[in-house]
Amino acid sequence: MARDARQTLEGLEAIAGVAHEPEADPRGVVVLTHGAGGNRDGALLTRICDEWAARGWLAIRYNLPYRRRRPKGPPSGSAQADQEGVAEAIAFARGLTDGPVLAGGHSYGGRMTSMVAAEHGGMDVLTLFSYPVHPPGKPERARTEHLPNITGPTVFTHGSSDPFGTIGEVTAAAALINGPTEVVAIDGARHDLASKTHNVPALAVDAALRMLDIV
User: Fold this and answer.
1) What is the DSSP string of 39-98?
2) Domain assignment present for 140
3) pLDDT tens-digit map of 51-65
4) The CATH number of the domain where 186 resides is what?
5) What is the rounded distance in angstroms from the CA atom of residue 5 to the CA atom of residue 103?
6) For 140-153, what is each residue's pLDDT tens digit?
7) CA 58 → CA 26, 28, 76, distances in Å?
8) How far apart are CA 12 and CA 150, in angstroms?
9) 170 sits in which H/E element
10) 3-state helix, strand, coil in the chain (%, to 5)
């Protein structure tokens, strides 16, 4: 670790983050954030961070700026500030490790992180959960215009019953990225990626680690 415990705590507080620490010195740092209606304490983020920590990584789940301002409700006019919050979390992670930094999030949080990746990069792997390709029932309103500007390795973990995009639509979105990509399809899962038959965190982490092997 490059910072002392006090500096780390202050940095976590600044991004409203919760750390999942591995048993030994971390191999790298993962920072993940939440969807539009959620927060850092959602079940999906918690399980994914547990999985990363079990694999020897420091994993941090954090709140976006709009959620730091109010405990409930969706974002409204906060995209720029939220992207700045993502960039702040990535910079914090970089200060904690000499190893790789992975960043991403669920739904809206993943979209905000992907926009930071498109404009600034800064992460070794981008990991997206239930990327909102379009609003439910409105495939003509694609949220993919920035994806060709992403050049780093990217993982999409997506449910086959997600109303924000079919597996085919996610695969087409991934093809827009100018870097290595992998789509992890979770059969039967909806937007929350809950599954009784698949270990979603393990599958997502496995895919991200495969991406690291080609960085």
Assistant:
1) -TT-HHHHHHHHHHHHTT-EEEEE--HHHHH-SSS---S-HHHHHHHHHHHHHHHHTT-S
2) yes
3) 999 999 999 999 999
4) 3.40.50.1820
5) 22
6) 999 999 999 999 99
7) 6, 6, 31
8) 27
9) helix 167-175
10) 35, 15, 45
Number of folded domains that form the chain:
1
Contact between 53 and 126 (Cβ < 8 Å): no
Residue 67 CA to residue 75 CA, distance in Å, equals 8
Range 180-200 average pLDDT:
97
- The CA-based dihedral angle spanning residues 90, 215, 21, 56, taken in that order and rounded to the nearest 10 degrees: 180
120 touches 148 (CB < 8 A): no
Q: Has residue 1 been placed in a domain?
A: no
pTM comes to 0.95
Give the closest residue to 164 by CA, choosing from 191, 124, 127, 202: 191
Q: With cut-offs at 50, 70 and 90, classify the pLDDT of residue 1.
A: very low
